[in-house]
Amino acid sequence: MPRDTRIATSPLYLQAEALKGRGSAWAIPHRFDTQEREQYDDGWGTLDQQASEQHLPPQTEIIEEQAKRIVSGNQSPDIGFDFSINPYRGCEHGCIYCFARPTHSYLNMSPGLDFETRIIAKVNAAERLRETLASPAYQPSYLVLGTATDAYQPIERKLGITRAVVEVLTEARHPFSLVTKSSGVERDLDLIVPMAQRHQVSVYLSVTSLDPELSRRLEPRAASPQRRLRTIRTLAEAGVPVGVSVSPIIPFLNEPELERILEAAAEAGATRAFSIPLRLPWEVAPLFKDWLAQHEPAKAARIMARLHDMRGGKDNDPRFGSRFTGEGIWAELLQQRMRKATQRLGLGRQRHEFDFSEFRRPSKVVGQQSLF
């Protein structure tokens, strides 16, 4: 029997009010759900109890996972890296626009509230990375840390999985880039700075808005805009190549800030920049529309209309070649603004070049000395 992939919108899944500190209060069902549920009053006050429980702030749950592998190969022709590492699935930052939210569907969890409250921690990530890099078949190439979910999200302060991964990369002298919204990357400067001196690392800070109120609503548990700019400055002053990602660009919301964000990042020490228009794959579309209805009702229709202009009349365009740029006159205008601003500010658009010549395979066992 074919699966029913409709997204249910029954009252069971909808939250009338936003939850403080969460990007979405909606436990939206995922596209692999085979059943649609509805509320039922059993005469024991169940509905009243559920309504009361909805107002309790949801706690973050950490689910430990023994990953079978940690390095993922890239097959997409429009992505500028070959391998990626994501120490976590799900992200407590709660960015409502996050394109990675639908990945929780594969875990039979909601891309909405579950994505930011049920975090999968790959506790053996460093061990799996060590095995991969030690294999004679492995050849070093461009690798990015934190491509789907933030490697320095809040739980990293306690678990240290990302730091353990960076330690292995440092031991192997394997170049890497990372993208983050967190100031937590400063903790690992003792590892990152020596890599920078060998031209083996670059860091990108994602700065979506300079407006702290808008940032708080879009990305409720990420670092404030000013804190991210301070991290750019700290990294630059330490000699670490640093760039800024102004992504996603949301029409009429953070889009008017594009040039100001680039100026602030350049002043703080960034030397590279890129931006990507808003993408709304799968369940992200209804989640973002629900967020607009709650937080930006006056702009909602204009935002979605302009997005459709750039996405072929749809919420999302997954095609290679256009998914990261959009299409049409408005997408072209954004690209022109980005190009002119980066030229004026001296911000490069290409990735940092790395030195792969010093790569050395780590031992398969921690502390074991290599014979070669």
From TrEMBL:
Pfam families: Radical_SAM
CDD domains: Radical_SAM
Radical SAM core domain: residues covered: 77-314
Coiled coil region boundaries: none
Alphabetized UniProt keyword annotations: Iron, Iron-sulfur, Metal-binding
Superkingdom of origin organism: Bacteria
InterPro entries: Elp3/MiaA/NifB-like_rSAM (IPR006638), MJ0683-like (IPR040086), rSAM (IPR007197), rSAM_sf (IPR058240)
Name used for this protein in its record: PA0069 family radical SAM protein
Species of the source: Roseateles amylovorans
